[in-house]
Amino acid sequence: MDELATEKEAEESHRQDSVNLLTFILLLTLTILTIWLFKHRRVRFLHETGLAMIYGLLVGVILRYGIPATSYHNKTPPSCSLKEGPVSTLLLNVSGKFFEYTLKGEINSREIHNVEQNDMLRKVTFDPEVFFNILLPPIIFHAGYSLKKRHFFRNLGSIITYAFLGTAISCFVIGNLMYGVVKLMQVVGQLTDKFYYTDCLFFGAIISATDPVTVLAIFNELHADVDLYALLFGESVMNDAVAIVLSSSIVAYQPSGANTHMFDASAFFKSVGVFLGIFSGSFAMGAVTGVVTFTKLHCFPLLETALFFLMSWSTFLLAEACGFTGVVAVLFCGITQAHYTYNNLSEESTKRTKQLFEVLHFLAENFIFSYMGLALFTFQNHIFSPIFIVGAFIAIFIGRASNIYPLSFLLNLGRRHKIKGNFQHMMMFAGLRGAMAFALAIRDTATYARQMMFTTTLLIVFFTVWVFGGGTTPMLSWLHIRVGVDPDQDPHKTKQESAWLFRLWYTFDHNYLKPILTHSGPPLTTTLPSCCGPLARCLTSPQAYENHEQLRDHDSDLILNDGDLTLTYGDTAITANGASGGSGADAPGGSGWSVNGKRSGSTSEEALERELDSREQELLSRGTRLVFPIEDHV
Amino acid sequence: MDELATEKEAEESHRQDSVNLLTFILLLTLTILTIWLFKHRRVRFLHETGLAMIYGLLVGVILRYGIPATSYHNKTPPSCSLKEGPVSTLLLNVSGKFFEYTLKGEINSREIHNVEQNDMLRKVTFDPEVFFNILLPPIIFHAGYSLKKRHFFRNLGSIITYAFLGTAISCFVIGNLMYGVVKLMQVVGQLTDKFYYTDCLFFGAIISATDPVTVLAIFNELHADVDLYALLFGESVMNDAVAIVLSSSIVAYQPSGANTHMFDASAFFKSVGVFLGIFSGSFAMGAVTGVVTFTKLHCFPLLETALFFLMSWSTFLLAEACGFTGVVAVLFCGITQAHYTYNNLSEESTKRTKQLFEVLHFLAENFIFSYMGLALFTFQNHIFSPIFIVGAFIAIFIGRASNIYPLSFLLNLGRRHKIKGNFQHMMMFAGLRGAMAFALAIRDTATYARQMMFTTTLLIVFFTVWVFGGGTTPMLSWLHIRVGVDPDQDPHKTKQESAWLFRLWYTFDHNYLKPILTHSGPPLTTTLPSCCGPLARCLTSPQAYENHEQLRDHDSDLILNDGDLTLTYGDTAITANGASGGSGADAPGGSGWSVNGKRSGSTSEEALERELDSREQELLSRGTRLVFPIEDHV
């Protein structure tokens, strides 16, 4: 009979799990249906993520107040004492039978009574690791994978400045302001538990990750200025990575200064070291895995897509297994894959992978936002502190301002195409907080400080997504930002920000990396000096000779930016094609091309740019294929 | 310091988890690369699933013998005693701090020492529920979703006979034979623990689920006879559902006969009741959800795909929440969605959903098979009993034979197009066991009997997949089964098995269900009697009038099978079109069409079939669009 009771309980628990998941799925379904309605009627004031939160809130209210506490589970769980520390596996001996238990986590002494309170509410609370290990990776990967925009690369310098320097500034400004707020709370007597300086810095780190998904969706729909789009999108993608590494290095900073929790120079430098180590490690790992994934499984799109999916996921796991940050690795893996691997996929597979990650990203994002809405009512350890909340709202405003305005001023000193005032205001306005801030906040809600942070983060996300997200369209017109821009027709098309460093890298990438790693780009035999002929022929994919005409649009996007390279490529391509009509890949031809390439490369850059400005317009209108009139040759 | 140690252990455990998952992903990656190589070189003797098993075996050997037991975890977990029964949540009090533990399962007293042995091997052992709740649903759904073949519907009667009656016969034959084997083992003294009659029946149920995925892949590639393909595929899809419900009703049978574990008429009928209840409940739930998912979100393929995915998953969860079998519900949901919802999706979404489920199915299937290979070495409680294994091989042979040959004989009495001898031999040969048998066997490995079954099932899967799977091509030529058949050109095209029951249902489905549930099919105004005019107009989608020319190929496939309906539809379409050229949907026209439909319906069936035989050839060659010469009318 005892066995039967256990079985019944297990069955009941399984059923409860199904019901909980079902709740979320129905929430998502409802969200999708409403989004469709909104898109159909062109409603723009509420984005799908905002909508998901509202539905989540409603269901949260129902779960909290609408359903009577189930009596079945309303008994205090039995406890048992041990002298040793907590272990991951525990055996329970019930009259000779052994049962295995696994550690779920520490419970606050205050919460022990909660355990018995309402099992239902506790059940809909997910393990925070789910967010990090299952929901964030597809979102971040998709962001990296869809980043491949020439406007992004053109603004790379500014984006990196905002993301790295800006996020660090924002983190420290917010951290210090919040420390002031905490001191004030102490004076007023609103603080009932410990709240350290490092906690404030941690809050600064988690709340500095912006997520302007709502704003960007509207930008996309209205075809707002592409440079502004690139700046915002690039910043938000990169600062997620910065925030996650920043927060974990602040946590690493804590133990050594456990007694003071105040500023300590050596611990600070250790944190900086941890930051640099984790970040560069994750970056390198992501980039390397992204590059390694170069598939040649043409003709079998299913295999290609599956392989692609597995490799991205294995990047995440590999980074986690090595102690790096999987999410950051996945981001750079996505960027690298979009840049290199994408060119190796068959036409069919590029579509498939894009759609696959699109669906995964869509589901994960909406799930997180609806869970946020739900968490406001079902999470059991909220600490609402009005002073802290108001202080946080002011602090994030000041933090964002001290990121955008000073850095824009500095960047404008170096930029040929300045970031105008209205762009700066828009970037200020688009500082929404989203999935990453939430995931970082929910990761650890064990202490008083963390619980207060979690509650505040939740409210900040709600407010920014609804108010700033909803106000995007009016703001755009108020700031006189152009909409309805065709990305290919914007006036500042060329050479704006192709700084020498970027240009150098780009030349290297285009002439050497792309040919080695992908089937696209010029054959290596054309770009390497003639002495490396045999090596070049060995490394060049046979398709590189054949597939000239298949040079993809996104490639040409980049190439058109840089007239110098267009010419190199153009020359090469035509010659290569002429030769391949004969024997495919012959050594004399190879050395001949490289001379060609060099000649054009040595021409004065400025002169070329002037010449190409007009040529480019022509190329654009005729499309890439006409640059290489292969049909005439073959 | 204690806290730090715990944190370190948690981190170590997280890292270990990542490494384990990474192992599987690398296994899958390796499998994909090798499959590609095989496909490239047209190797047919080893299918991807067989390959995945081999790689799994290799990794299992390495894990078992290659890696020294990690010393970190090599301590016996502490145990603690309680008087009450096992509970799902346990609190552990370690010097004032509380930790929450969740129940993982019962541990055999023999295994307590295993717990301390090798943590690594235990870690790569997944929770069996993962197979049921995560890996099987996409496989089964995909099977249901890709079932939409006219050859399937044409052979529906035979397929259902093999799947239901055949699986039940096989289950009882195997169960009884195995009971004899067990008795023999008792006599010889090879049996060291209890092994009941119900255990034997349970073994019969789990091992009766066939999975000829290898055979079908080769059929597909060689274009073998389509009817044989339909019979095999249909049987294997359906008997998975039968086996899962059968095994759970045998488990339900156990408690009431707990003392005897022998045959008991009342308990038997109770089991039959449970079987019918669960099966019909799951069937109804799947069918209803499949039908309900009729989306109208055209223009937003992403939303459509996401919704489609969510609805299929929610079917699974809903069924589980209601105590039915999620896997069975998902199967029928897939079949229904393919039949109805598919027609409502936009062109883009049909592709997307197909590809999405294809990838999921591919990954899940290969994961299960590679896990099987791994489990042979890493699973710690194998019981290899030579007598039981040899007995099982003989029993499944006899069980399969007593399913196929007698039922084929009976079916041939009623079939116009007989199932020939060589087809029967091929069906006999194609009785491979796969994912479902494994998932059912691993679900519960607590007792001695179940562990022996698990080991035997694993060996049967290995043997059948490698030997029967690899021998498919020689077997096909040995049995003189035609290959290279164009499915549209096979000689027995019409009226073979359109039994009156099926015909009746089909007419109902085509004339009423399809128009109500999808945008395709004839407008309801044409099929309902004239008195229902207003209702018909209200239920008919406006697209039904417009989209006549979009009648999809798979629809026409079915229609062409059934001359009677083709004519009805043909008339209707042309008339409808003529009318819609005028005012779109007017009542008098509606009644006129229904008269038309009725007239052709009342013509003698035999005469029509003769007439249509020649007409059909013409239709086939001209394609569906020409049946409705809409261009001429509009």
UniProtKB/TrEMBL annotation, chains A, B:
Topology within the bilayer: Multi-pass membrane protein
Primary site of residence: membrane
Residue ranges constituting the Cation/H+ exchanger transmembrane domain according to the UniProt record: 31-478
Biased composition (Gly residues): 579-592
One term of GO molecular function: potassium:proton antiporter activity
Compartment(s) where it occurs, according to its Swiss-Prot or TrEMBL record: Cell membrane; Recycling endosome membrane
Domain of life: Eukaryota
Biased composition (Basic and acidic residues): 607-618
Region (Disordered): 579-618
Segments crossing the lipid bilayer: 20-38, 50-67, 130-147, 159-181, 201-219, 272-294, 306-335, 356-377, 383-402, 423-442, 448-469
InterPro entries xrefs: Cation/H_exchanger_CPA1, Cation/H_exchanger_TM, NaH_exchanger, NHE-6/7/9
Keywords, ordered alphabetically: Antiport, Cell membrane, Endosome, Ion transport, Membrane, Sodium, Sodium transport, Transmembrane, Transmembrane helix, Transport
GO CC, any one term: plasma membrane
Family statement drawn from the similarity comment of this UniProt entry: Belongs to the monovalent cation:proton antiporter 1 (CPA1) transporter (TC 2.A.36) family.
Official protein name in the record: Sodium/hydrogen exchanger
Species the sequence originates in: Myripristis murdjan
